[in-house]
Amino acid sequence: MSDQPRQPRKPRVAVVFGGRSSEHAISCVTAGSVLAAIDRDRYDVVPVGITREGRWVLAADEPEKLAINHGALPSVDETGSSVMLAGDPTARHLTVTQPGDVPRAFGAVDAVFPLLHGPYGEDGTLQGLLELAGIPYVGSGVLASAASMDKHYMKVVLAAAGLPVGPYTVVRPAEWDTDPDGVLGRAASLGWPVFVKPARGGSSIGISKADGPGEVARAIELAESNDPKIVVEAAVAGREIECGVLESLDGGRPDTSALGEITVRGDHEFYDFEAKYLDDVTDLTVPAELPEGAAEDVRRLAALAFEALSCEGLARVDFFYRPDGSVLINEVNTMPGFTPVSMFPRLWAASGVDYPELVDRLIQNALKRPQGLR
Question: How far apart are CA 171 and CA 322, in angstroms?
């Protein structure tokens, strides 16, 4: 028998990406960056892709295949072996299923890094499955994920906490068909232009600007193709400022990053999908040049928004800094874009936390998280 001490097992981290939402491709891009950054000397990594139809598959550990290539967006390879995660806290493992074969346990999972954007992943649904399975995971829990994903309820929670949000109205499912005059009246009361958005979307997919009543129908039809519930927001004159938030490792107040500013050049009227991911028309300035008092106010509001929504792990809070010096919260993103050139990692890099360290911190935070109610 060998007297060599047995090496402790490395924590196994399942990186889950893809999914059924319209943000499938962006989730794949994010996963490629995270997979390339995880320290394999510290963690056993299992890439798990979710196809556009919702099938879970073992994915190849080849981050380079998940990048945007000359404008072509990546997707999950559907040929991988199917895997399942049971909502059973006594198991905590992935099960591999192949047609004609007996299902086999792939192995225990110590933490999940869910990199899905949008519905069926970022909205509390996956988080609920992981809670049932008793597996720790990176990011916010069920409530914070669901409330932050829904721009309507996010604003309700923030306003109830006394935090500043802009004017808006909600168009509920089928309301445009049953009461178009009422919808137009509420939109017009916000002043023109307005921004029409899917209530539970992201990556600026389905968002459009309406300069008057004649453009609202087109904007609503586009938003409805992504979500039957729609939010119409008043346009806000001001600079777009973003702040990263991380859950404190010692359980104290959340940490906030340096601030960043987004400016869009050329023909794009706002920060839409093409401006974000496909066209080279966006300038991300980090750190943003704001008066010190205003910068401190933005960071304070970012931490308060994180706490008001009961966020965990990470979030990016987006603001409008208006010409009179006042600040409005625009959105809270519980799983922001996470490539090295995305705003959230760049904010933390400017704050002294580089990309691999940021990934490691999030995994360590997940591994330490208690299960059950917290």
Answer: 26
**What's the gap between Cα 206 and its chain centre?**
16
Q: Residue 371: how many CB atoms within 10 A of its CB?
A: 12
Helix axes 24-37, 355-367, angle to 10 degrees: 100
Measured CA to CA, the distance from residue 48 to residue 126 in angstroms comes to 13
Fold adopted by 148-164+237-366: D-amino Acid Aminotransferase; Chain A, domain 1 (3.30.470)
Question: What class, spelled out in words, does domain 12-137 have in CATH?
Answer: alpha beta
What is the residue-averaged pLDDT of the chain?
Answer: 90
pLDDT value at residue 351: 97
Quote the pTM value: 0.90
> Averaged over 316-338, what is the pLDDT?
96
Residue 140, SS3 per DSSP? coil
3-state secondary structure of 293: helix
175: which residues sit within 8 A by CB, 6+ positions away?
182, 183
Q: Let me know: does 94 contact 86? Beta carbons within 8 Å.
A: no
Cα separation, 43 vs 254, in Å, equals 26
Mean pLDDT, rounded, for 210-238: 93
Superfamily of structural domain 168-234:
ATP-grasp fold, A domain (3.30.1490.20)
What is the per-residue pLDDT for 66? 93
Residue with tokens 């609202």: 216
Which of 24, 9, 71, 81 lies closest to 47, judged by CA? Answer: 81
Could you tell me what percent of the chain has a pLDDT over 90?
73
Q: Nearest CA to 171 among 127, 216, 131, 107?
A: 216
Is the pLDDT at 179 greater than 50? The verdict is: yes
Here the tokens at position 50 are 């979710």
| Phi/psi-derived region of residue 97, left when phi > 0, alpha when psi is between -120 and 50, beta in every other case | beta
